[in-house]
Amino acid sequence: MKLGLKRNEVRLVPYAAEWHKEFVNVKQSILNSTPIQERQIEHVGSTAIKGMVAKPILDIAIGVDDINNVDRAIFQGLNHLGFLRLRVERPNEIVLAKFTDETFEEKTHYIHLVEYDNELWKNLIFFRDYLISNEAAREQYKSLKIEYLKQNNGGIKGYTDNKEQFVRNIYEKRK
């Protein structure tokens, strides 16, 4: 299992069982290095879904009490583990990434800091769990991703935009 994508690269690989093992290792490191509780760390995204093709980057959701006032010890601990805050502007979310080396060209992990148990947290968990339990939706999502890459060689924005309506439709099922 090799994790990592270069800036604006979009590549899909088959599911790898090692992704879960890597998540467990990273989660333990986060627990050891920050004041975050175990229930506040979840493996999300396609690498958390058995049988799903995925970009080889591990996505981890971390729930915090207040996204506008994150405990400094959290940032210090994550930084100590090699996670750097990105200049990504998303509502109610702070994104950090881990890179393969000091060139900062290839990301291997993302952390999505969101408010614990709020709308975004619940949506991320629901989306993962829905696709795990619903084979038809999982296959539809897989096909959507594969077909996009067959027809486009664009960057991450086009890839993400192409999936947005599907993701929103799944979020709506939670309500």
UniProtKB/TrEMBL annotation:
UniProt keyword GTP-binding, yes or no: no
One of the Pfam families matching this protein, by short name: GrpB
Keywords, in A-Z order: Kinase, Transferase
Residue ranges of the TM segments: none
Highest taxon of source: Bacteria
InterPro entries for the chain: GrpB/CoaE (IPR007344), NT_sf (IPR043519)
Statement: the UniProt record of this protein carries the keyword Kinase: yes
GO molecular function, one term: kinase activity
Protein name: Dephospho-CoA kinase
